[in-house]
Amino acid sequence: MLDARLGRNEDIEEARALARQATLSRAGDLFWPAVIVALVLLALTGDALAPYAPTAQDVGARLLPPFATSSRGFHLLGTDPLGRDLLSTMIAGTRLSLFIGVTATFIGLVIGVGLGMAAGYYGGSVDRLVMRLAEAQTAMPMFLVAILFLVVLGPSVFNVIILLPALVWPAFARLVRAETLRLRETLYVEAAVATGCTGPQVLWSHILPNVAPRVAVLTVIEVGHVMLAEAGLSFLGIGVQPPDVTWGLLIARGRPYLAVAWWLVTMPGVLLGLAVLAFNMLARRFEVASGSAA
Amino acid sequence: MHAQSPGRFVVTRIRDGLGILLLVTVVIFLLGYGLGDPAALMSPVDATPEEIENLRRLLGLDRPLYVQFVDYFGHLLRGDFGESLWQYRPALPIVLEALPFTLLLTATALVLAGLLGGINGTLAGFWAGSRFDRATNFLTVAAVSVPSFWVGLILIAVAAVRIQLFPTSGFTGWQSLVLPAVTLAVVHGGRIHLLVRSATFEEMTKPYAMVARSKGLPDRLILWKHVLRNTSVTVATTIGWEYVRMLGGAAFAVEVVFAWPGIGQLMINAANRHDFPVLQCAVIIAGAFVVATNALVDIGYRLMDARLRVA
Amino acid sequence: MIQEPLLDVRNLRVRFETPRGLLRAVDDVSFSVAPRETVGIVGESGSGKSVTMLSVLRLFPPLARVAVSGQVLFEGTDLLRLSEAELREVRGAKIGMVFQDPLTSLNPALPVGEQIAESLRTHRGLSRVAARRRAEELLELVGIPDPARRADDLPYRFSGGMRQRIMIAIAIACEPKLLIADEPTSALDVTVQAQVLVLLERLQRELGMSLIMISHDLGVIAATSRRVLVMYGGWIVERGSVEEILERPGHPYSAALTRLVPDLDQPRDEPLVPIPGQPAPVVGPVGGCRFAARCAYVMDRCRQETPPAVALATEHISLCWLSADGVRPAPAPIPAGGRR
Asked: Residue A33 pLDDT > 70, yes or no?
């Protein structure tokens, strides 16, 4: 049964599929990395850049549309029902959205790379166990289990961060296992073993550096996926809870006002989409540059 | 990769599917009974500690975990998922009433997504680099980069609130189906497009495609007779796996957006009301569907592929 | 001898835009092919020989960013000026093409008879039945036994040699005036190679076609062609008759290729000498001779200035500074370190 799924790593396929669309103009080469850098800067220094305090309410300036001016000043993206400046809340949400995306992906990466290398290098029952686990994980309706998990343990940032890696580690494990299998046969790894390097030494100093570039591409893709998953959970009310704020939560918060204040839902979604798009485009650039796609 | 005979493959695949389903129930049990406290979950928010303790004894939660699991699993096998704490009737019928709505929505969305992504993806891959390819390219990547529930909200804002074209909430007839189905089709159609385009493009780089062009065949003949014959299995499988993906998540968030009376809506309501029996029943039933679809697609792929390769 | 050529390629240039820079795949290539004549093009992979011939029919891989200039006159018409639709009337109908790898060149999911018949239906407007009958005849012509039955088989039921015969049947289905065979034997066993070459020669004679034979193996070229073009780095570095190039090569690259031919008319004493180094794709700005990096006779001048075309005999031209100095590369193994 294993074999039917080994050839199918949808996330890697998606990365390749993205990469094959190598027809965008060169301007895109710098644009999307710039978007990511801008988002990271926003996350790190957000409070300083935000025009207003994200929680500052103003009953006199409720539900102002974009480009409106209140007694406090100009509101580029408008205000919410409590008169809070939308742009400032979105900037505040950037930090947690990115933090969850990156942290959860990184935990998934560590688990996946570790298990993948072990499976590929030691083979045998280790391999079978890891790949079965990865497969069961993929075949399992994870979103459903996630709902249950968060309901039982209670929704919180911490629980979201320990849950989401479960979604991404199999992709890393499969990629790294395949690469390790390939590298194990190469001469210099055999030479390292012959000169008395132990398994972990070989994995750390010979295999890991070689799988790193492809892991990097997958990481970029998965950060996007994790951010979308977090947004989904938070939107459904089983992810991040107020007073914490993420883009997904902002969309949920704006939903009741959809008919009267479209910007409350639209703007955070656009920012989230832009961020994920930037990660997808960046991964595509990597793939094109590494020549693994036509 | 094709070491087993198709017949054996079907048997092992079904066995593995059942194994995964068993694993799902174990995980659910451990989450609910190991990590969580069902008695507390099932009690009203203002219950006193004694009331919770009584309920715990009543439910047999003071017994060892493995005894509880055997008991729990035995009930599941008999179709007994417990009683809804909200509606005071068995959980299973509640879930089964919601199931057809989810299937109707996802099936409609899949047909739309399959047509959208399958046709456009094939054409884009066939004419890679063309104006059509470039135009669909960005739209597609954008479609897979936004959350489906957000697409749904935007559709509501535009199509329903502004021009009042389609109902946006609940189920009042086929018109209710339009917006949620289109929402799901946009995101999943985008992914199908991406993967089908990639597969078609790969086919176009193969020598036989060059040979077909060297024969001076018109494009439509190369596409229909040569390329599609080789990508059809991949396209069908891609669409099948996309259904698994849809059932595994996105569909439920979109149901909530449109107040669609399906399983996703039911689950979120149950979660908010701490209606644990309904929640776990919904997860197991929906999970069984995901696992079964997954197995069916795998088996279908294997049989179609075998027929193609070793006619 | 003064005869209108069937194919007249003039100053063909093909450039590919690659991530690493501009690839000069074909540079200023000119040659002509007379009716019923066989011309050989020899060179290693990456020499531009295949790209030259694919450019004739404008067959490029998808997404290739390619610029073609020059003229490709076929029966007096410049193929490079034709629209895609007009070019389709030429492909397969007037110019047939056989590719290197018969394992991947046939559509794995389509019966071989249909792969032959579809050309006939497209170009000749034959009915399904008539095309099928003709396809069986063609299979017989290329030596497939029991063609009526085997026309329904998928390609995997045939051996490599058989598949290449089927590929040839596809290429000649519409009785083209010109057949381009791109490494038609390279993927085949030695015994099968000879059979396929004999088949190609016979068909050329019977159908009165011109043949362009592309190979990395000068032996294959020598067995089939009278005139030879030697290509390296997108240039035709030497052209002449087979005898001239085998016996009195003017270019060190041709000389090196002759030492790779195992069995010519008379057995030689010296061993087969592989050419050291790899052919590097010509990317970005380049000056001097493109073979300089691997040439045993390299001189300082070779790295600076483009070598001139020097006529060594009637219709024997070498693109080399050595030839300009009146020096011929040694037919025997090259002395270590070359010449300064």
From this structure: yes
